[in-house]
Amino acid sequence: MLATPQAPGSRGPADTAGPADPVEPGVFAGLEGVTNVQAVDGGLTFETTGGLDAVVKLAARHRVTDLEVTHPSLEELFLRYYAHGADG
Questions:
Q1: How many domains does the chain fold into?
Q2: Can you give the pTM of this predicted structure?
């Protein structure tokens, strides 16, 4: 598995053609709006704000075996909003 980007709906089919080399987390960490990049089980997880265009284009340079995009729940959005509001 080369890259498994998980960013903040849809799940695509997995590519089962075989293993690939892992991607260094720093490759995605350099993108604007990408945070919390972690190598997990031979893939990557991260959070992103804004559009996914740059993330998808960078991922396309590698062998993607799975891609999962999830959106925060209303509760998570509420807590993030007010946590940042309390800080200033």
A1: 1
A2: 0.60
